[in-house]
Amino acid sequence: MKISLWGARGDVSVVRPQTRKYGVNTPCVQIECDGADTLILDGGIGLHWLGNALIAESFGSGKGTAHLFFSHTHWSHIQGVPFFVPLLIPGNSIHLYGRGGSYSTEQILCDQMSPAYCPVPDFFDDSIGAEVKVSDLAASPIRLGSLLVEYAEMGQLHGSPRLGYRISDDADTLAYIPAVEYLDDAVRTAAHALSNGADLLIHDAYYSDEEYPTQQGRGHSSPRQALELAQSARAKRLLLFNHHPERTDQALDDAASALNSAALPVECARQGAVYGLEGR
User: Fold this and answer.
1) Model confidence over 217-273: pLDDT tens digits?
2) Distance between CA 226 and CA 220 in Å, rounded?
3) Distance, CA of 227 to chain centre
4) Other beta carbons less than 10 A from residue 234's beta carbon
5) Sheet harboring 93-98: ordered strands across?
6) Rounded distance, CA 195 to CA 182, Å?
7) How far from 181 is each of 93, 196, 218, 228, CA to CA, in Å?
8) Beta carbons of 269 and 22 less than 8 angstroms apart
9) Residue 199: CB atoms within 10 Å
10) For the chain, where are the alpha helices, taking DSSP H only?
C-alpha cells in the first residue's frame, strides 16, 4: 500500500517561508494498492494537485476510476473538488462518498458549484465531463477491489457529521482520523476500533497541547491526545495531521520531537511525503 500526502494543513492554505517544510495545501491523501482503483481521502486544495498528476496517467485519456471519501464537508475538506481536473474529462469514473447531515453530500457538493462561488463548469451536470456518482455513507464496510474501507462517525460539529476511516488490504492498514475531539467515550471507542493495530495512524493535531485547554469544545485534538490514542490502539506509527494555519515548521518539529519514542515513531504529516507500508 502506497500513501501519498497532497495536503496536511487545516482550514486554509498558508504560503509563508515558515511553512515550506510541511506544506500549505488543505487535506488530501492518496492511497494506491495493487488490485484496487485510486482511493482518495478528503478533497482539500491538495486534490487539485493530485488531479494534475493523475491526468498524466489514465485519467488524462478518460480511462481512470477514483473513489474519494470525505471525512466531513467543511470547506477545507471539499474546496479542491471544483478544481479536480479528472472530473472534467469524459470517460473517467469518479465516485464520491460522505455523510452530509442535514443536507445530502450531493447537495452540498452541487451547491459549491454555483456560479456565484465557482468559475468552472458544473461537472455534476450529466452532459459535462466524467461519470460522477455521489453516495451518502450508511453501513460500513465497503469493498473496493483489494481494499476494505471501514468507517465510523467521530461526532458532529455544527451539524456536520465527521467520519474516521480504516483502509486495509491483506497486508497493511491505514487509520485516518483528521478531525476529532474526545468529549465522550463513544467517540474514543470508535476511534480506537478504527486505529487498532494500524500500521499508520494519521490523526488530527490541530491545536498544540498548550492551546487545547482553552479551545475545548471546538472540535479538534492535540498531539498528546493523538499519541494517547495511538498507544492505546497499538498503532505502529503516528502522523500528526491537520496542522493549524499558524503552525510554523519549527513548531511542528518541536511537537513531534516532544512525543517521539523508540516504541512508536511520531512525525508531522508533510505535504509531498510518500509512505510505503511494508505489510505484516
Assistant:
1) 999 999 999 999 999 999 999 999 999 999 999 999 999 999 987 689 999 999 999
2) 10
3) 18
4) 13
5) 131-136, 93-98, 65-69, 38-41, 28-32, 2-7, 274-276
6) 14
7) 34, 18, 8, 13
8) yes
9) 20
10) 46-54, 75-78, 105-112, 185-195, 212-215, 223-233, 249-259
Note whether 31 and 147 are within 8 A (CB). Answer: yes
User: Quick one: which of 74, 86, 16 has its CA closest to 50?
Assistant: 86
Global pTM reads: 0.96
CA–CA gap between residue 40 and residue 169 (Å, rounded): 15
Q: What is the H or E stretch that residue 202 is in?
A: strand 200-204
59 φ, ψ (degrees, to nearest 5): -65, -25
For residue 184, the one-letter residue type is D
CB 271 within 8 A of CB 8: yes
Give the model confidence (pLDDT) of 105-152 as tens digits.
999 999 999 999 898 889 888 788 999 999 999 877 999 999 999 999
Cα 189 to Cα 204: distance, rounded to the nearest angstrom: 16
- In terms of Cα–Cα distance, which of 62, 59, 7 is closest to 30? 7
Grid coordinates standing for 255?
511537537
